[in-house]
Amino acid sequence: MKSLVFAANWKMNQAPADAEAFMRTFTSQYSRQQQKRVLFFPPAVSLHVVVAAVRQRGDLETGVQNIHWEDKGAFTGEISATLARAAGARHVLVGHSERRHVFGESDEATGKKVAAAARAGLTPMICVGETLEEREAGETLAVVLRQLRAAVAGLEAAAVATLMVAYEPVWAIGTGMTATPQDAAEVHAALRKELIAITGERGRAVPILYGGSVNRSNVDALVSVEDVDGVLVGGASLDAEGWLAIVRS
Ligand code: PGA
Predict the structure, then answer these.
(1) Can you give the pLDDT of all 249 residues of the chain as single tens digits?
(2) Is 134 exposed, middle or buried (0-12, 13-18, 19+ CB in 10 A)?
(3) How far apart are CA 247 and CA 230, in angstroms?
(4) Where are the beta strands (DSSP E) in 208-247?
(5) What structural domains does the chain harbor?
(6) Within 6 Å (CB) of ligand 1, which residues are found?
(7) Distance between alpha carbon 195 and the CA centroid of its chain, in Å?
(8) In whole angstroms, how large is the CA radius of gyration of the chain?
(9) Active site residues
């Protein structure tokens, strides 16, 4: 049985009171399952609530959705990896498609954030994915491999073995369209090959998650694909019952 990672990306949703109600329902109904890790990425203002809720649970972990690449200083509105770590985060999403496409985050910025996360002891989950235009132009693999290489450019090979990757086709995020298991298999295999090229055999153990309109009906087919080691879920992770159904799959 392969190990699976189920990651909930709450995006700009779940105020502290909502997060508290969610975590109460979730932790009371979900008992540890072998070979499964469940990660929560709440908005930063609700991080403390999730940190407190997972404190007694080795199988539940939390992180932030974004960081700045500097460790501290005059960067109004930003949160550094060191601040996030001190507040209890263990993971961070880097290069999410909304960061890249809504906020104009470059491959270079993504690389700096990954390096900052590693310095601070946060595990980056590097998100990669092609737009519909890039897919139709046959550029999918070139795009995701470029994004992956740029993201890890500042890391030692050994550090690359400790991070996570999420393949999220931009056209599948929040649209109800999901990649077919065959589409996911092709991209995940290419990402795996690249991770092994960078970090050697250890690259086989790096979790590569799939994301983009994952829900309780399609999750089983996706996680049975070779090299799909879990899912990164937005919309369908917002309600505790729905998320329970997904992590129990
Ligand atoms: P979605 O979002 O599940 O709502 O498509 C996934 C993500 O953006 O991480």
Answers:
(1) 789 999 999 999 999 999 999 999 999 999 999 999 999 999 999 999 999 999 989 899 999 999 999 999 999 999 999 999 999 999 999 999 999 999 999 999 999 999 999 999 999 999 999 999 999 999 999 999 999 999 999 999 999 999 999 999 999 999 998 899 999 999 999 999 999 999 999 999 999 999 999 999 999 999 999 999 999 999 999 999 999 999 998
(2) middle
(3) 10
(4) 208-211, 230-233
(5) 4-247 (3.20.20.70)
(6) 9, 168, 173-174, 211-214, 232-236
(7) 16
(8) 17
(9) 96, 168
Distance CA 59, CA 54 (A): 8
Tokens at 100, concatenated: 């890249």
Q: Which of 214, 231, 247 to mutate to test the pocket of ligand 1 (most atoms within 8 A of CB)?
A: 214
CA–centroid distance, residue 234 to ligand 1 (Å): 4
Nearest CA to ligand 1 atom 2: 234
Nearest CA to ligand 1 atom 1: 234
